[in-house]
Design brief:
About 50% of the residues lie in helices and about 10% in strands. By secondary structure, it is α+β, with helices and mostly antiparallel strands. The longest helix has 28 residues, at about 265-295. About 35% of the residues are buried.
């Protein structure tokens, strides 16, 4: 059963076509994964408190100002007609109709029979205080108090309570009469009351008015100020309106403010955005591959330590905060997961320690094309429940309450309002614009959470060189695929390889190209141009990782614009000739005996073949099995070995982490229905 408000919203959305309904779903951030099944459920959702809390936080200043005028009409007990709201806003020449239409499109407020009706009252924090209706104070006051106030105002205070209240209400509804009373105030009192009316109608600035118990206060004696509940002493809204008189006009700002900006080349902005998002794909790839070979160690708090992040940044040739964000994105997209290590022997009740390991989902992600990879990372960041780079322990309480997903939307939206071809000059300009786009957010210049949100937007290409980007606009429209494909298409798939053993890409390198050159050369610079340098160590590491000389030369030929320089060919072949001439075995223990015959016997014993014996010298045999298993097998075979110190001769392998008990789900992207599909389904259900 729908309420009257829900029924009204239901009738309005039922009249929308599919395109308009899809737009409403997108703008009201209706979840596609847990979407309403029919229009009744959608109406309940749109009227629900949580949905309204989100949409109010994201309303721009002019929409908040129109709703403030509607709320004030309610305070004054007057109908919120379109004409009345316009008058309260100073009869704006333009912009008012567009804001009203936008509120109706969002199903927040609409015009019915000439009255602007809001589904919910504006939140208290979004409305400037003009005081409460004097009737509320009069109804709560004792009759002796009402008689005293009447006498001070020059009215007859006799008669029954309803008569006294009616006389007072009549006076308070007369702005001219109230102004005459204030004009008779003692020196200083009149100016104080006018200042309060222009400020917030609260009289706490004067110690006399900290409490209404000070009955000697001039304004309190005449009912020009009351204490509502346990709050501060404030003037009724009728007094505020009378004192402001012709100046009783609410602010209305239909156009964004002018902010300090700098000219910037649009082509450079998009190139930087493409480079950033592709670089983030590279870093996440590197993080996953690192965790695949060696689990990432964690602190006791299950956080990745600063030293570990710095070491990974050095190995991946990335910025420390970029690698930190790559780790967070990989966790958010379930490409990495926590895994508990077995408790040390003898400490069964010790707190479990964890490491980060790559998941089965990461295998699917690595096999995906760069466009899909980038789109998944952007969506993960856009919907994350935390600002990855912010230190929340040092964030002000007000900022801690800002939903991170809405703060990201606020930052990206603000960048879209800068003059075309320009970028914000500094953080102060960003804060000024945020004050217009999202006035309900308590953001300040220099705030850690704001700066870190902007930095994250840069690292994923949603903001570049202080300006908005196509990727940012795509995130706002909830459709990143086309924009990501265009960004990925700008990647360079060939590099200029010089005779000085360097490779240079002027622009964003493709992920495949970057991965190959990172495997055979040392990255020296990133940015507008990415540079690698080849040397014996880098080529040897490529062979150590399993590449053959043919694969290295074929890769260089495939990713080089003008062929392979002779000097680089010589370097690769020279390293290949010496590579593998010395072999190293992975052994867990070494068994030493003074008798060569005994070593031969142990090597030939079939019961010990599972230990993987390798003869290292006439009197030394190495086993690949751990020392405990080797000792147990030797004793079972009839030998009497003892465990001796190896003095550095024993090679101990890394303890393998047990695989996940439950495999992670396969990687998938874009499984939620589009808003267009959801709108069609809801429209069909309505029919």
């Amino acid at each position: 059963m729908l309420t009257a408000v829900e029924e009204s919203v239901r009738e309005r959305i039922a009249a929308l076509d599919v395109d308009a309904l899809a737009l409403l779903l997108r703008r009201r951030h209706v979840a596609r994964t847990d979407a309403p099944e029919d229009l009744d459920e959608l109406a309940r959702h749109l009227v629900g408190g949580d949905s309204f809390a989100d949409v109010y936080l994201t309303l721009p200043r002019p929409a908040v100002e129109v709703l403030s005028a509607v709320a004030l009409c309610k305070q004054l007990r007057m109908p919120a007609t379109v004409d009345a709201v316009r008058r309260l806003l100073g009869d704006p020449e333009s912009g008012f109709e567009a804001v009203v239409e936008d509120l109706a499109e969002l199903q927040i407020a609409w015009v019915s029979d000439g009255v602007l009706t809001a589904v919910h009252p504006l939140p208290v924090y979004a409305v400037r205080s003009y005081g409460t209706d004097v009737r509320r104070s009069l109804d709560a006051a004792a009759l002796p108090v009402l008689r005293s106030v009447s006498t001070k105002l020059g009215l007859r205070g006799d008669g029954a309570r309803p008569e006294v209240v009616e006389q007072l209400v009549s006076l308070f509804d007369d702005p001219d009469a109230l102004r005459s009373v204030v004009e008779s105030a003692p020196d200083g009192e009149k100016e104080f009351l006018y200042d309060a009316a222009r400020r917030d109608s609260i009289l706490y600035a004067d110690p006399v008015y900290l409490t209404a118990a000070r009955s000697g206060a001039w304004a309190v004696q005449r009912g020009l100020a009351w204490q509502v509940a346990n709050g501060p002493v404030s003037m009724p809204v009728q007094v505020t309106r009378a004192l402001l008189g012709a100046y009783f006009v609410l602010p209305f700002s239909p156009t964004p403010p002018e902010v300090d900006s700098e000219p910037v080349d649009a082509g450079h902005v998009e190139a930087e955005a493409s480079a950033r998002v592709l670089r983030m794909v590279e870093l996440v790839t590197g993080v996953i591959e690192s965790a695949s070979t060696t689990p990432i160690q964690l602190l006791k708090s299950n956080a990745v330590g600063v030293r570990t992040v710095r070491a990974m940044a050095k190995n991946l040739h990335g910025e420390v905060d970029a690698v930190q964000m790559a780790l967070e994105l990989a966790l958010g997209d379930r490409l990495l997961d926590f895994e508990a290590l077995p408790a040390p022997k003898g400490r069964r009740h010790a707190p479990a320690s964890h490491v980060l390991v790559a998941t089965d989902r990461s295998v699917q992600w690595l096999a995906s094309d760069p466009g899909t990879q980038a789109a998944s990372l952007l969506q993960t960041w856009w919907n994350a429940d935390a600002v990855y780079l912010a230190e929340y322990e040092g964030v002000a309480d007000e900022s801690r309450e800002i939903p991170p997903r809405l703060l990201r939307r606020a930052v990206v939206s603000a960048h879209e309002l800068v003059q075309a071809g320009h970028a914000f000059a500094d953080d102060g300009a960003v804060v000024t614009m945020l004050g217009w786009t999202f006035p309900c957010f308590p953001v300040e210049e220099g705030l850690d959470i704001l700066q870190m949100t902007q930095r994250e937007a840069e690292l994923v290409g949603a903001r570049a060189l202080g300006a908005g980007t196509e990727l940012g606009r795509a995130l706002l429209s909830e459709n990143v695929f086309d924009a990501v494909e265009r960004a990925v298409s700008t990647a360079h798939m060939r590099a200029t390889v010089g005779a000085d053993l360097t490779a240079v890409v002027f622009g964003p390198p493709g992920t495949t190209l970057a991965h190959f050159f990172d495997s055979v050369a040392v990255r020296e610079a990133t940015g507008a141009a990415t540079t690698w340098r080849f040397d014996q160590a880098s080529v040897r590491e490529a062979f150590d990782d399993g590449l053959s000389v043919t694969e290295v030369l074929e890769g260089l030929d495939r990713f080089s614009t003008g062929g392979i320089p002779q000097a680089l060919t010589y370097l690769v072949n020279d390293v290949a000739r010496t590579h593998g001439s010395i072999g190293a075995y992975t052994l867990a223990c070494a068994v030493v005996a003074p008798d060569e015959a005994l070593i031969s016997e142990i090597t030939a014993n079939r019961r010990l073949s599972k230990l993987g014996p390798v003869v290292l010298a006439p009197t030394v045999v190495g086993f690949t099995a751990p020392i405990e298993a080797s000792l147990e097998a030797l004793r079972s075979a009839g030998y009497a070995p003892v465990h001796r110190d190896s003095d550095g001769q024993v090679i101990i392998g890394r303890t393998q982490v047990a695989p996940n008990a439950e495999p992670a789900p396969s990687y998938a992207l874009g499984t939620a229905p589009s808003y267009d599909e959801l709108a069609e389904a809801l429209a069909s259900a309505g029919d």
